[in-house]
Write a structure and sequence with these properties.
The complex is a heterodimer of chains A (176) and B (201).
Chain A (H helix, E strand, L loop, with lengths): L5 H14 L9 H11 L5 H13 L7 H36 L8 H28 L3 H16 L4 H13 L4
Helix pairs in contact in A: 1-4
Chain B lengths: L23 H14 L5 H11 L5 H13 L4 H44 L3 H32 L2 H16 L4 H24 L1
Helix pairs in contact in B: 1-2, 1-4, 3-4, 6-7
The chains are: A mainly alpha (176), B mainly alpha (201).
């Protein structure tokens, strides 16, 4: 239990965080940002928003932004430790709960709890968006690009990958 | 990080019974494939593969299992892989699905992390990533907006207050997540319970 050991810090941080990740990975972004940028200074603001962009752009569950954070802290062992710490505890929990609930029950508690959690996870995701806007959109052009993508993605069913690539092109061209 | 919110629109139910239980390698490969296909959310691909392509579960069973994983904490799709795998093939099946879902993308992500550490300072890459970040945030805003629409339409004051409260506590005041949730979850469950009882009475 050495506080200096970065691997242990990663495991305890993300292991605990996963248990509070109500509403999935996007809802945990503010906490990841708070811990990685503000508390431990593992990454800069810019590195964090880059990590978010890379995680969005690559295949696989979006929760794998923790792989990038772990790598920034402690190389390949850090990447693996962070990933497992974020994914394994809740997977075990899900396994045991699903065995308990193997027969469908008539209880209304699951539905009630789920309804109660919905506004909380939306609030968390809105907070994610705010924090990422603050670290990403430092120019008017950047803000406009974000707003444009938000509108297009809201009104159309276009594949998000195209919007990400378009954003990359705008960036490549030096516009944002 | 688009949320794996509700399962997509209902397809017509497929009445056929299950196919034979898959082998462990089949499970691993199926989850690896859907994971690698899933840019910005794996759920849609998971549903297509499990229900339509392999017929390992019916649409109803899928929804039921998904609801369970959605209400538990943690990355939904990861929970889903373990629950699916273990329902089909026991603990070994859970491990195979979990590994299939996570191993290939984690390797890719690690390679990207190495590349970023080495080349992240290149100006071309910095600019492109900045643009991608802007777009990624825009996508997240669109998702939040979509999820918020039903609450706004119903003008459900309790839900809106809770949503706003969590947003301010986490996004503006930057309070730690566990502290906020330890207050917000009991309050929300309690209030929802009493409101429903009042409606029922």
């Amino acid at each position: 239990m050495n506080a200096e050991n970065p691997i242990w810090a990663l495991i305890s941080t993300f292991g605990l965080m996963s248990l509070f990740a109500v509403g999935g990975a996007a809802a945990a972004v503010p906490e990841m940002h708070r811990i990685a940028v503000e508390v431990h200074h593992w990454m800069t603001d810019k590195q964090f928003s880059d990590a978010y962009a890379i995680a969005q752009l690559s295949p696989g569950p979006n929760v794998l932004i923790v792989t990038l954070i772990g790598y920034a802290v402690a190389g390949i062992p850090g990447a693996l430790a962070a990933t497992l710490a974020m994914c394994l505890p809740t997977a075990l929990l899900a396994y045991y709960v699903s065995r308990l609930l193997n027969r469908p029950s008539q209880s209304r508690w699951p539905g009630l709890i789920q309804a109660a959690l919905v506004p909380l996870s939306i609030g968390l995701m809105a907070a994610s968006a705010l924090i990422l806007v603050q670290s990403t959109d430092r120019t008017i052009a950047a803000l406009l690009l974000t707003a444009m993508v938000a509108v297009i993605a809201s009104v159309s069913r276009i594949n998000p990958l195209w919007l990400l690539l378009a954003g990359g092109l705008f960036g490549f061209a030096g516009i944002v | 990080m688009s949320p794996d919110s509700a399962p997509a629109a209902q397809e017509p139910d497929i009445p056929t019974a299950h196919a034979a239980p898959p082998g462990l390698l089949d499970l691993f490969l199926a989850f690896a494939r859907m994971s690698l296909a899933g840019f910005g959310g794996v759920l849609v691909f998971a549903r297509r593969a499990i229900v339509e392509q392999h017929r390992w579960m019916t649409a109803d069973e899928f929804n039921e299992t998904f609801a369970l994983c959605h209400f538990l904490p943690g990355p939904n799709i990861v929970n889903l892989s373990v629950v699916f795998g273990s329902r089909l093939r026991g603990i070994a099946g859970g491990v195979a699905a979990f590994a299939g879902l996570l191993l290939p993308p984690t390797l890719i992500m690690t390679v990207l992390a190495i590349a970023y550490a080495r080349f992240g300072d290149l100006d071309v890459l910095r600019r492109s990533l900045a643009g991608i970040s802007c777009a990624a945030v825009g996508l997240l805003i669109a998702v939040v907006f979509r999820m918020m629409t039903p609450l706004l339409k119903r003008m459900d004051p309790l839900a809106l207050i809770l949503m706003l409260g969590v947003f301010l506590a986490i996004g503006v005041l930057r309070l730690p997540l566990p502290a906020v949730l330890l207050v917000a979850i009991p309050v929300s469950i309690g209030a929802t319970y009493f409101l429903r009882r009042k409606v029922a009475a």
